[in-house]
Design brief:
The chain is α+β, with helices and mostly antiparallel strands. The protein folds into 4 domains: about 90 residues, 2-Layer Sandwich (Uridine Diphospho-n-acetylenolpyruvylglucosamine Reductase, domain 2); about 120 residues, Uridine Diphospho-n-acetylenolpyruvylglucosamine Reductase, domain 3 (2-Layer Sandwich), CATH 3.30.465.10; about 110 residues, Alpha-Beta Plaits; about 90 residues, Alpha-Beta Plaits (2-Layer Sandwich). The protein contains 15 helices and 18 strands. α8 runs antiparallel to α10 and α13 runs antiparallel to α14.
């Protein structure tokens, strides 16, 4: 008896929760990368863990490739379905439950939108600190699968640091409940951390227990104009020892001009500078504000900074943040080719200088836009596509230069992906960050959890 995929899926997902129309396939078969053509066989919308488990067992039996789908805000092709896979959308698994005010934890289904989790924490008088520009569309399951970081890492760490429990469905259809919200658990391998950052290649994350923390008392934002790369690290080193920093971000004048062109925000001060830093700190009174102004004056005296502004209200702080957070959206029409790299903080200036030389040499006719979470060594490099150049030719030229970019990353013992994952775009370059022995062990781990290779095949490994 022959197997027919769509009828089998429709037996599992009633109420028209199996979609095969062209618009749905195109929408759910692609993430924010725009260099692939989506071609899934179907999109399914489970409502509960049991449905996910039944789907995985069916897929395991009939060798059906599955691609998990959250907010699809990734930039490495990790949620792309281009080979007839079945997309598993978690849009309808978005419950928040079991809030524990003593432990300060809440259980989230995989489809909970990041901003909703932040709002829930605020309603409880608490705070969920992992934050990024895609907060309004990214989902918890995808954030965990890529170990998302964002703009608050310098103080609060990565998504990994806030996951105290995890429920997953492995590639064989087994449900695992990992760590159960415990703070201490010294009973061998912590399998929870294998799934965090695994990009859906070991199994499907269906539920997470997330810890919350106290809300910061008050936040002030400063934007500073920095004429030289080395000055950025001098400012960072000075401020981190005297202010309670919650963010330390970097962007270039080229990036700022794209934001300003949209007309939604204004230049923070009259003068222009090659580089800018945005720093946010907890400001609990007059003392902190005075200290920040003293540090600013010192930075000006030392020549590290030539101009600056500090927020005087929450509205002004939000407007200053938009100078940094609106960059990705502002350059999106230019179809940028993105690299997301990480190195140790001390190595940022020499690395950027060396990389600037490479980019100027290899991309003389391309505009390159820099920004990033420089307080944790994470830089985003965006090469903008010229209007007259075909996408395939543009991508080909960018890929040719990747070897020089990643050679520099390897020389500085960095990572080819800081927070966007490996997915499809970085998979050929994994060896620049991981040794052959590490990759072999990773393949062995995948074989244990996903012996038939049905979980997000082709991604990461």
């Amino acid at each position: 008896m022959s197997f027919s995929l769509i009828p089998a899926l429709e037996l599992l997902f009633t109420d028209q929760r199996v979609r095969t129309d062209a618009d749905t396939l195109a929408h759910y078969g692609l993430d924010w990368t725009r260099i692939y053509q989506p071609a899934p066989s179907a999109v399914v919308f489970p409502k509960c863990i049991e449905e996910v488990q039944a789907l995985v067992r069916l897929a395991n039996q009939h060798q059906i490739a599955l691609v998990p789908s959250g907010g699809r805000t990734g930039l490495s092709g990790g949620a792309v379905a281009s080979q007839g896979e079945v997309v598993v959308s978690f849009d309808r698994m978005e419950a928040l439950r079991d809030f524990n005010p003593i432990d300060r934890t809440v259980v989230c289904e995989a489809g909970v939108i990041t901003e909703r989790l932040q709002q829930f924490a605020q309603e409880q008088g608490l705070y969920f600190p992992v934050d990024f520009a895609s907060r309004g569309s990214s989902r918890v399951g995808g954030n965990i699968a890529t170990n998302a970081g964002g703009i608050k890492v310098v103080r609060y760490g990565l998504f990994r640091d806030w996951v105290v429990g995890l429920k997953v469905v492995t590639g064989t259809g087994e449900i695992l409940s990992l760590n159960n919200g415990l703070i201490k658990n010294a009973t061998g391998y912590d399998l929870r951390h294998l799934f965090i950052g695994s990009e859906g290649t070991l199994g499907l994350i269906v539920e997470a227990t997330i810890k919350l923390t106290r809300a910061p008392k008050a936040l002030s934002v400063m934007v500073l104009a920095v004429p030289e790369l080395q000055g950025i690290m001098q400012v960072f080193n000075t401020c981190r020892h005297q202010l309670d920093l919650t963010a330390f971000e970097f962007f270039s004048e080229k990036a700022l001009k794209h934001v300003l062109t949209r007309g939604h925000v204004q230049r923070p001060f009259e003068s222009e500078s090659p580089y800018y830093v945005l720093l946010e700190f907890e400001n609990q009174g007059v003392t902190e504000q005075e200290l920040a102004l003293q540090l600013f004056e010192k930075a000006v005296e030392q020549g590290w900074v030539v101009d600056g502004v500090i927020s005087q209200s929450d509205a002004q702080a939000q407007a200053l943040w938009r100078l940094r957070e609106d960059i990705s959206e502002s350059i999106a029409p230019k179809k940028p080719y993105k690299n997301d790299i990480a190195i140790t903080i001390a190595n940022v200036p020499p690395f950027m200088q060396a990389l600037d030389a490479v980019l100027a040499r290899e991309y003389p006719d391309f505009e390159v836009v820099w920004f990033g979470h420089i307080g944790d060594g994470n830089l985003h490099i965006n090469v903008l596509k010229p209007d007259e150049l075909a996408m395939a030719d543009f991508v080909s030229r960018c890929q040719q230069v990747n070897q020089w970019v990643f050679d520099l990353v390897r020389q500085h013992q960095g990572s080819i992906s800081a927070e966007h994952g490996v997915g499809l775009t970085k998979q050929p370059y994994l060896g620049y960050t991981r040794t052959a022995a590490e990759i072999a062990l990773m393949r062995g781990i995948k074989q244990v959890f996903d012996p038939k290779g049905i979980m997000n095949p082709g991604k990461l490994l």
